Amino acid sequence: MRLSRFVPILLLLLLPFCKANGILPTENNSSSQDNLALSILLAGFDLQEEAKRKIGSLPLASPRSESDSKEKIALGEKIFKDNSLSLNSVQSCSTCHLLTGRNVGTDGQATSLGTFGQAGKRNTPTIFNVGFLETIFWDGRKSNLEDQALLPFVDSSEMALGSTSDLLTRLNAKSEYSTLFAKAFPESPSIQLSSVKTSISAFERSLISRSRFDDFVDGNPYAISLEEKEGLRLFLNLNCVDCHNSSMLGGSKFVKLDTKYTYNPNDLGRFEVTGIEADRFVFRTPSLRNVALTQPYFHDGSVRTLDEAVRRMNEYNSPRMITEREVTLLVAFLKSLSDRSKANF
Ligand code: HEC
Ligand code: HEC
Fold first, then answer.
1. What is the CATH number of the domain that holds 194?
2. Is residue 85, in this structure, part of any structural domain at all?
């Protein structure tokens, strides 16, 4: 048990001493004074327990990462950043999923730009923590990273290669890859598509963020500020966790938000995958991890700032309207979900 856990107990033990010495009043209403002192002391700890139970901290390793050797991860990273693997030899995965500086794998565009600058129809999601997702893409059309990894190479609005054999030809054309594949996959050393999938996924699974919120949930009551705690309290009270659930704060539940805003008629969301009428304009609830670093927001990138995104969410689905002060608090809390190594905007 961490030292911080003893703080309330210690303070409780000190209570009679404080009273005896006039530090806390003993006369009238002493029991309500006690209650007040107690609830102030315990509030932070209650919140910690509730956040642990309803949200939780992100595990330190992604599921199914046991055999992700450092050689596989390094190969995946190299392929991810290699712009010779696209039709125009300019674009790589990291053109849209930027990882430099404060970026967590997004591109700052409303919707992504393809090989020839043409706009795609959806906002690029972060690729941090994707190893924890069980539904991939805004419409959940894939359920694991391996099944996703080759698609962008041959997608005409992404890297636009003619076929996956074109990808193999390009990998074979660079002499360094034969050694790297052999090192990463000693049991099947030749350059092959299954190894491309495995190594890219291994690299993605290694991108795990660690935030001050995780430190708070894991026992450090001082890891987030009072304002951020108030925001967290609101986040829990306003039932944001109904959809933004689990330690990912989202990423699993499919929802159509009742909205006065118009949907792009060319993007039918989950309906495109299931063909079920009720899935029209249904999208996956995004994970809120690193959300302060991933503007613009929503599947179509139609919302530019985090304040606006929070205001809109509350319009869509809320027990009550929230005040501007509460928007500020919620945004403060959301900022505590950013990876510690990345500065918030
Ligand atoms: C042209 C920009 C672009 C390029 C290049 C690109 N992506 Fe993406 N990526 C996107 C967009 C946009 C989406 C969301 C698409 C959707 O949901 O339909 C996405 C989604 C993803 C997801 C799913 C994330 C989630 O939250 O479900 C992963 C993983 C991913 N890309 C990895 C890659 C890899 C690996 C490459 C290179 C092989 C790559 N991307 C190349 C724009 C791009
Ligand atoms: C009914 C389920 C539901 C509830 C409740 C909910 N959200 Fe959302 N949230 C979503 C969905 C779905 C999206 C994506 C909508 C889209 O792209 O069209 C979203 C998007 C967001 C975004 C933008 C994230 C991004 O990466 O684009 C933020 C921020 C957000 N929600 C915060 C909140 C807050 C704060 C609350 C509580 C006040 C809340 N949400 C309550 C389902 C929900």
1. 1.10.760.10
2. yes
The reply to whether 197 and 138 lie within a common domain is yes
Active site residue 158: yes
Distance 174 CA to ligand 1 centre (A): 24
Give the residue, by CA position, lying nearest to ligand 1 atom 11: 124
Specify whether 155 is located in the same domain as 94.
yes
Q: If we measure between CA atoms, which residue out of 288, 284, 286, 287 comes closest to residue 334?
A: 288
> Up-side HSE of residue 42: CA atoms within 13 Å toward CB?
10
Report the alpha-carbon distance of residue 181 to residue 325 in Å, rounded. 54
pLDDT in tens, the chain (345 residues): 444 455 445 544 554 444 444 344 444 444 555 565 455 555 578 999 999 999 999 999 999 999 999 999 999 999 999 999 999 999 999 999 999 999 999 999 999 987 777 788 999 999 999 999 999 999 999 999 999 999 999 999 899 999 999 999 999 999 999 999 999 999 999 999 999 999 999 999 999 999 999 999 999 999 999 999 999 999 999 999 999 999 999 999 999 987 777 889 999 999 999 999 999 999 999 999 999 999 999 999 999 999 999 998 877 766 678 899 999 999 999 999 999 999 886
Closest Cα to atom 16 of ligand 1: 137
Is the Cβ–Cβ distance between 247 and 57 less than 8 Å? yes
Q: Do 38 and 77 belong to one domain?
A: no
Pair (163, 41) in one structural domain: no
- Ligand at minimal distance from the CA of 290 is 2
Q: Which domain range does residue 181 map to?
A: 70-205
User: Nearest residue CA, atom 16 of ligand 2?
Assistant: 298
Q: Does 149 fall in a domain?
A: yes
Instruction: Please tell me the pTM assigned to this model.
Output: 0.90
Q: Name the residue of 89, 92, 124 whose CB sits within 8 Å of the most ligand 1 atoms, as the mutation to test its pocket.
A: 124
User: Which pair of structure tokens corresponds to residue 88?
Assistant: 């125009």
E strand spans, the chain: 254-255, 283-284
- Domain co-membership, 89 together with 180: yes
One domain, residues 8 and 108: no
